[in-house]
Amino acid sequence: MIAFSLEQRASRVVFGVGTLEHMSDELDRAGIKRALVLSTAAQRADAQALSDRLGGRTCGIFGDARMHTPVETTLQAVRFAQENGADGLVAVGGGSTTGLAKAVSIRTGLPQIVAPTTYAGSEMTPILGETSDGQKRTRSDPRIQPAIVIYDVALTLTLPTAASVVSGFNAIAHAVEALYAKDRNPLTDTMAVEGISAFARALPRIVRDGADLEARGEALYGAWLCGSCLGAVGMALHHKLCHVLGGLFDLPHAEMHTIILPHALAYNAPAVPNAMAAVARALQVSDGAAGLWNLSRDLGAKTALKDIGFPVARFDEAVTSALERPYWNPREITEAGIRDLLHRAVFGIAPTPADVESEKR
Ligand code: NAD
Question: What's the Cα-to-Cα distance from 196 to each of 175, 208, 289, rounded to whole Å?
Fold first, then answer.
């Protein structure tokens, strides 16, 4: 029997190719007259091009957004916004730039318009992760979620194909964990399967040809769906592991998600047969965990945490931290299970359905 409770947060989404052209209209809609444009240093030229197009509607560019939203950077951006009389924020970039917009907005009350250029999905969530004193803290507040999101497929054409693959897996991770979330509902189930399917179709085409506009469109559509899942329901073991390892070892966000996801799903498999079936259906394979591992490997992504900066000598510390303050998870967390999962992830060993088999016996 279907039973659920559902709270939907409204944000305005404009999706298509060339939609950044509508920024002026969206600024009007949001009542913004002097926008501060945010970007990373690497995407400053994009921010400048947008600012030039908007003419007198912007008051400057803050081009120093950084991964994991360091609080000191946020405070610099807040000062810059105040000194330049900004009455709103426009973010053009991936999760790091969106994170900066959220962090400035929650401190100043400035409205935000976000134009995502990766598939991380932060634009569709009320979640903000910030780092200070080497620690990452996450909070959720409806006021953090951007009011307007402009998805312009053209902005993603420059995302290198390797970065596109891992960013796509970052998005898929939100959908996979939504499929077994405690508070999932029929809408998130539908969005999750559709989001995973979109990436399974799009990513191989993007690897073949990064300029394939149709595939780029499908991937960004998947990012919207998967990000919406992340914004709507709670996450479990996979996100807990990424949070802990990212904080401890400053591992690259999307790459880490890509490597851990198949193992986290394999771990939870015995407890979530319906989610396993849904992931397998979305990927058109017989086993979801193996399907994700094969897909990432076939698309050229790294499969071992030791190859993206995980310090093998600190393995025990990683296990201990992963066991502390656990998130809700559909399957009981055991030290032996986490040790095996991390061992596979660290050394790039394929996830095994072995513990599925052993629980069946
Ligand atoms: P990112 O935003 O750090 O981007 C990585 C690099 O790619 C940057 O140098 C960026 O300038 C560049 N880049 C981005 N788009 C590009 C494009 N189209 N063309 C060329 N270069 C491009 O990486 P990310 O993976 O999108 O975001 C990671 C951050 O987002 C982490 O801090 C993570 O915690 C956060 N995040 C938060 C949420 C949330 O809901 N709060 C969700 C997902 C990710």
Answer: 7, 19, 13
